[in-house]
Amino acid sequence: MTRGAFNNNHAIKIKELTIMAFGGLEMWQKNKFSDYPFSIKGRFSRLSYLAWAGLLSLVTLIVVMINTLLVSRNISAEAILDQPPSLSYLFWPSWIVLIISFYLSNVFMIRRLHDLNRTGWLALIVYLPVIGFLFWLYLVVAHGSTERNRYGRPRDASVWEGIFGLVWGGLLLGALLFFGVYAVLNPGIQHFDILSVFLKK
């Protein structure tokens, strides 16, 4: 083999490797974006949905509690209750987190619906009285498509999603059973007052 032929073959190999490398990088970036949990373009399994929804709930609760505690250290509860409009600016961290939480909770529901091969617009059902709660239960327990559907390939839950999703799901199930049994044993109490009665005890 002449030196020119060797250099030509070497250049071709380098070109092929470069194309393969950049093509693989582009495919990896595309797959990574499709699995990005904060994007509506993708799917969520049951455990992934429970994990991210639970994490979002915890972060929101912690921020709101810290914000409330910091405000209450300088302002009495009576002042907060008597003049809420004039003091609402003190709770801007909570408002920001609540807005972000509202948006992301809808994103997670849309991804869960995609896993069920359903349009994300069905997430609006969750805001209907009674039916919304039943629809949310459906999102939690329904098994998604095992194969590729019109919204992409199945997304496997990571290790932390699996563990946290099971823990959060167990806590939700325990809470539902507790309040359900409490409501049955205390029929005279309105269902909206069950939590307040429990906290007073």
Q: What percentage of residues falls in helices of 4 or more residues?
A: 55-70%
Strand content: under 5%
Please describe the biggest sheet, giving its number of strands, its sense, and whether it closes into a barrel: none
Overall structural domain count:
2
Given the structure, what is the number of helices?
A: 8
SS content category: mainly alpha
Mean pLDDT: 79
Keywords: Membrane, Transmembrane, Transmembrane helix
Protein name: DUF805 domain-containing protein
Pfam families: DUF805
Organism: Aquirhabdus parva
Task: Compose a concise summary of this entry.
The chain is mainly α. Helix content is 70%, strand content 0%. It folds into 2 domains: 1-29; 39-200, no CATH class.
Account of the 3D structure:
- The radius of gyration is 25 Å and the shape is globular.
- The protein has helices at residues 3-34, 46-74, 77-82, 84-87, 92-115, 131-141, 159-185, 194-200.
- It contains 8 helices and no strands.
- The chain folds into 2 domains: 1-29; 39-200, no CATH class.
- Helix content is 70%, strand content 0%.
- It has 201 residues and is mostly helical.
- It starts with a helix and ends with a helix.
- Helix 2 (46-74) packs antiparallel against helix 5 (92-115) and helix 2 (46-74) crosses helix 7 (159-185).
Blueprint (SSEs and pairs):
Elements: H1 3-34, H2 46-74, H3 77-82, H4 84-87, H5 92-115, H6 131-141, H7 159-185, H8 194-200
Helix pairs in contact: 2-5, 2-7
Task: For this entry, give a set of tags.
mainly alpha, 8 helices, 201 residues, 0% strand
